[in-house]
Specification:
alpha+beta, 2 domains, four-stranded antiparallel β-sheet, 7 helices
Length: 179
């Protein structure tokens, strides 16, 4: 069996991601997730994917488990050498096929580096004002909130907080360590 050159893989991913620390974390998760998926695919119970998309989604699930959060669309593009549109479709497929498994990962990913900005009310939603770090993270949160019927409202006219949502007070942000 050929040995894996982790340093070379990390270097390539670092170049694609522009972040060496993130590349190192993704390399470790990728290699471990790939090994775990290979074992499960051969020895596990039930059916196995019969399409390339299905195979990739299962691999991405194992990588996400190793990361401890949902793999990002950018990481998918860098790792699998696919364009952003394909990475987005794989991300959506991962979230829909493994909805219950990845829900905590989706929220953890979406709320990474998010900040609370007090409490308030907007469009009938009373709760915390949450400023997301990126538009992609806010969109992931919105999609998951819609799936679970969590009341949220987007506030669009805040120029200093472009990705702001009002999140219903029944959602426990402390679980995800949001400041």
């Amino acid at each position: 069996m050929p040995m894996v050159d982790e340093d070379e893989l990390t270097k390539v991913l670092g170049g694609r991601l522009g972040d060496d620390a993130r590349a190192k974390e993704l390399t470790a998760a990728y290699l471990s997730g790939m090994a775990n998926y290979a074992i499960e695919r051969t020895t596990g119970q039930g059916g196995v994917p019969t399409t390339l998309v299905g195979e990739r989604v299962e691999l991405l699930l194992h990588i996400s488990k190793q990361l401890g959060h949902l793999i990002t669309q950018r990481e998918i593009a860098a790792l699998l050498r696919v364009n952003p549109g394909t990475a987005r479709r794989l991300h959506i497929e991962l979230r829909s096929v493994h909805e219950d498994t990845v829900r905590p990962f989706v929220y953890r990913y979406a709320l990474q580096n998010a900040k609370t900005d007090g409490k308030g009310e907007h469009n009938g939603v009373v709760g915390m004002r949450v400023a997301f770090a990126t538009e992609e993270q806010m969109e992931a949160f919105l999609t998951e909130a819609e799936r679970t019927s969590l009341p949220v409202a987007r506030k669009r006219d805040e120029t200093n907080l472009p990705w702001l949502l009002y999140v219903h007070s029944g959602f426990d942000l402390t679980v995800y360590e949001v400041d």
